[in-house]
Amino acid sequence: MKMRSYLIITLLFIGFLNSCKESNKEHSQDLSSGHENGNYEFTNELIHETSPYLLQHAHNPVNWKPWSQEAFKEAENKGVLVVLSVGYSTCHWCHVMEEESFEDLEVANLMNAKFVSIKVDREERPDLDMVYQTALQLVNGTGGWPMNAIILPDGSPIYLGTYSTKEEWKNILTKFSTEYEANPEKMKEYATMLANGVQEVYEQPAKQLANEISKTKIINGISTWSNSWDREWGGNTEQQKFIIPANLIMLLEYAVLEQDKNAQDFVFKTLDKVSQGGIYDHIGGGFFRYSTDPKWKVPHFEKMLYDNAQMLSVLSNAYKLNANNTYESLIEDTFHFLTSEMKNPEGGYFSAMDADTNGEEGIYYIWSIEELKSVLNTDYELFAKFFNINDGEVWEHSSFVLYTTESIAEFSKNNSISQSEFSIKLKKWKEALYDARQLRDKPSTDYKIITSWNALLIDGLVDAYKTFKDARYLNEAKLIFNYLKDHNYKNGELVHSYTANSDQKEVFLEDYAFLAKAAISLYEVTLNIDYLKVANKLIGSALITYKSKSGLFYYNLPNDLVPRMINTTDGVIPSANAIMAQNLFKIGHLEYNTSYLNDAKSMTSLVVEDFENYALNYGSWGTLLLNHAYPYYEIAVVGEQAKNLVQDLGGFYLANTLVVGSERSSDISLFKDRYDADDTFVYVCQNNTCKLPVTSTIEAIGQMKSFGYQGLETIQKFSK
């Protein structure tokens, strides 16, 4: 049964119940969650949880319960429906709905009398969120948070929506509770159809047939996707814009391998416009979650760890190709933001910073003209010109979001000021405004330490280290890895999320895949075999726990309420299946593990058609397609100076190339019988053929060229 069939079923289902549509429109009023310290009139079962989001709702008059078999059993025994509300602690509209509805006694009394109500933190339970978001998208064509569902005691949804006003929510509650009391069997029939539709979505990847991997299919996929590129402002031609770093990383590799200047220009355009827009925090560093407009001007003011982690990788790789100093500054400032605002004292990194402060979205980041003048004094006029502070750019409350449409070089030239002088002024302005902003109340931080997201940060820091040779980045990556080993990977047992006193046991494919990738990345730059051992152990565990008969991997472990899921698409974070395949591919080349290599190729062949038709959603797979369709190179450095030579090679943009080293004799296949105590040799190989060993980076690069590698020409070709 195809997706169109699911939509027909769910539209019939909606027509039968005549339910209210959820509202995704803009609302003018920003409200806070109302969660304060002190004595509380109400306390529910969430008080025993450790998730910041669940604790925010622990004193609602709604009798919230955490997700559990017992909660569904209670609903079954009472003969009532379940309200499932999914969100996260830094979600603006989650706060709004809490204050309008979940703190309201009238609404709470209705929910308590007619439903069993369950709260879920989507960051703790991405599996649950994935199931019900899929159902919401089948019904409504879009998803989002808060995600509010009404479901049967067996977990099947009968209503799904996002934000609702108090009156809308009351009507929904009344309509469905009344209907369930009158026609429970009829509702169960429609719920079964929708549940089957959701299950079919997650079974579909396992039913796909393998396709030949070819350059033609990759080029077709990029060509189709390019029709939706916004060539003026970067990103895709949409009203709201997400950066999607995995796509940009893949496009850089494609541009180099295919010598496609249009693709490379698109990536650079996107990074340039993002760095100028309000989606970047020009004062404190770091990137916000997404832009609410096509010009990247006004962001949704959440800062997520996964966005900033991946941006370190994109910017580091892009810098190797164009040596844009702005990218280096963005990395430095983002690193400062992460270490100063997102890091806990033990070394783990928090999941997110809230969009709201004291109930108002973005108020921590915006500026009035009076505030700017008081801080900048005589420099205000020049500052205002650069950051577009004028009557036509007012956002809300007579305030402004800082953004620019010119580079420093362009602005300096157009305003008759030297670039060095303006850069000094800009630095002083930012420091002065940063100090002024520190006096404001800060947004709250979600202090969960999520394994997969921290692993993404390790990767980003390693990429920054490879590019800039700054030991701070590598040292921080090591600290995060050690933190995860001590807290999230105790005694060989991995968990998805950690907080002090947490007893969460859930873990998902993304945690194994991303942490294994991070371990491989650390191994590549440190040559420390212990990291490789951890990676192999994690991959081995994932093979045992999540492998399906299709050759792909399940995202989760199933139970009575949650089905098995196979997910292959990228979202704001890469596909866990794609990252697993990337890990198998790399380890396969390093250790000449043909089983891993075959698995990686088989997995990739299953998504060829998806990439050709919907490349936008398969960027991480695109990297693997490039690995298989274009020549793949292995550079093995063996000897006492291996680490130094590997570090030198890290400064080059080497697409489709594995660079590894060993300072001692090793039985790992790429190093076996290649160690010489008297010298360090570099072996350049492609397709099981190796050149004679050389002793310098320059010679190794020359051998890459002699193999026919064209990527190095990109630096000269595209930087002009």
UniProtKB/TrEMBL annotation:
Native organism: Maribacter confluentis
Residue span(s) of domain Spermatogenesis-associated protein 20-like TRX: 43-196
A Pfam family reported for this protein in Swiss-Prot or TrEMBL: Thioredox_DsbH
Stored PANTHER family: SPERMATOGENESIS-ASSOCIATED PROTEIN 20
InterPro entries in the cross-refs: 6-hairpin_glycosidase_sf (IPR008928), 6hp_glycosidase-like_sf (IPR012341), Ssp411 (IPR024705), Ssp411-like_TRX (IPR004879), Thioredoxin-like_sf (IPR036249)
Entry protein name: Thioredoxin domain-containing protein
